[in-house]
Model the fold of this input.
Amino acid sequence: MPDIERVVHAAAARYEHDATQLLQILIAVQDELGYLSPPALTAIATTLNIPRSRVQGVAGFYSFLYTEPVGRYRILFADNITDRMLGAPLLLDELCRKLWLERGKLSEDGLVSIDTTSCTGLCDQGPALLVNGRVVTRVDHRRINRIAELVRRQVPVEDWPAEFFHIDDNICRRDALLGTPFKPGSALIAAMRLGRNDWLQEMHKSKLRGRGGAGFTTAVKWTGCRDAPGQQKVIVCNAYEGEPGTFKDRVLLNSFADHVFEGMTLASWATGAQLGLVYLRGEYRYLWPALHEVLERRRAAGLLGKAILGTPGFDFDIQFHLGAGSYVCGEETALLESLEGKRGTPRIRPPFPVVRGYLGRPTVVNNVETLAKTCLIALQGGSAFAATGTRQSTGTKLLSVSGDCAAPGIYEYPFGVSIAKVLDDCGASDTQAVQVGGASGMMMATYEFHRSIACEDVPSAGAFMVFDSSRDPFEIAHNFVDFFVHESCGFCTPCRLGTTLLKGYMDKIARGYGAKVDLADIDWVNRLLKNASHCGLGTTAPNPVVDTLVKFRPAYERRMQSLDFEPAFDLDAELETARRLTGRADPAAYLNGNNEARP
Amino acid sequence: MSAPEKTRVATASLAGCFGCHMSLLDIDEHLFELVEKVEFDRSPLTDIKHCGACEIGLIEGGVCNAENIHVLREFRQHCKILVAVGACAINGGLPAQRNYFKLDDCLRQVYQYRIGMTDAGIPDDPELPLLLERVHPIHEIVRVDYFLPGCPPSGEAIWSFLSDLLAGRTPRLPYSLMHFD
Done:
């Protein structure tokens, strides 16, 4: 197949036949061919001179890489709880009906397929869907009608109405980062004036902690990288914002990209790294062109490239890598594996990435928001930065507020803000629960709303999903459990099986077959996940269930069929075929001993 | 001093091959030790038809028909500790291979369409328990306390497991005895 050969060679050539760029090459080939057919995988393996099994393994790992034919229109509805609350499941069914197809199946003419995907980071303007990788926001019945029409008429996605793809920043509260005017290059000039060592000292003084969720002190990371042996150091910006309910990085990359790139350059100044990599989640691919423009502008202004701002020896440039739908790649070592063109399986630490990271080089991996914050430190000084927030969590935090509130969007607060204050500001009323930090975070009940967002109290990567009293806490936890089953990378047994077992119990309870003894089994699975999983995905996967079982136990109990054990299905109905075939209706033909099936 | 009261144990084979029961007999000279400590209630070994109050119930085999369910429920009701013994009780095992087919197809293929059938017809005698749509491991039907894997578990594994149970220790098979085949 000459066409496949041509496409594969072109893609491989663009990435210099570098096997560590396998993921990028697979994405490029799929862009051209629609899906990754077996001959295409073989051609890629041959061209890159790597085992075909490796190519297949990587292609099979990522949700947005397809090894089976897909429709010319691939429509994926975001399936986060906030999208569901805005009616996404009904809209999905409606579109399936209008296009005469079954969810998850390709239409017979090969035109269209419809399915769900994990949170797309548009919870503030959902329900959202992806069509051929492009985000459509604010889907409603009218948009569904129009989408059905556009697909039927086979209008190319590029020609769909622009307003479908319109994405708002929705910044609702500005503080130090979002509210201060910023001149690109100013932070860099300030830091370079200090010199590399004093700049790192300012970072230490600022006590800045990582904004991705783990809260590790940034200056310690940078120092570790600077002092690690090895010349070719790397700064990685983790823009894989996969945590359900989080969308702050989307806004930062859209409107504050200079902060982010300047932050990476500041990290390079401190550590001596010359290579910067941005790992962008596939869902944010639409940001790519604008981000490239910003990079070009910065290169032209001497803020990137060789001898930055005329300083000999200060060389640093930034490249982009695209993800392809895998939540676990937000974990820093899985991200590094993915950057190296492999399956996103988390590594065992130590060695930590600052010692052995990308391609074995000393690597700093920082969250988008963390990097943006370093500009403030360069401009105001570390002590001024440390004067805001709380003692252990300095500075401000961007919260992605979504769910049952009047004004969903981005809210920037100094660390230490109470949950009640945020609820008040976003216009939430009758709130019964807030999920702080996303699916892997903490579910807070009303009696905890006085608590504050800070590493020392309620840590958060930024998600803040609000649920009023009309919502069912069990359904929320059930949604998050489904998410973890889908996103478990499958590498370690406790997580792969544990999440699936947990889903089995949640499904059983949801169908009304639950029994109290199932709650004890759930506790056991939760302990297993927490204690035995390979990485943070597995250890945090039970959190939504653990929290709701403690704080919203009646939401489970009222679904229970019995206090003793019950099977997960209608046992008597299983005798129906045999009853029919034998024509029997005697008492022994029914499990409860009389002629009526169980109610 | 009166002899200590013996632990009452019941056993049953549901959709199994009695291989696990044979393996129980394979504990050889430990049988003497066992009968010192236990008294068998309902079991193929005693031919007692219904289960009385017991401390331990051992179930071999999965659940393939209505009678299996009644037996299993009776065991659950009367046994303080219920153990799934062997591959079929734990996973459905060999009988569960029919789960890849519809029951309708299975029965028709065997009793109606089979070449050389005379007097074809699906047996409908009320004496015969009705088959379930699928074969289930026992933990899908009742609460199960412990699982003893193996096809069958070796006599050594069964003895180790029972010794633990009888002595009040949480059963924990040594690695060398832990196998699923």
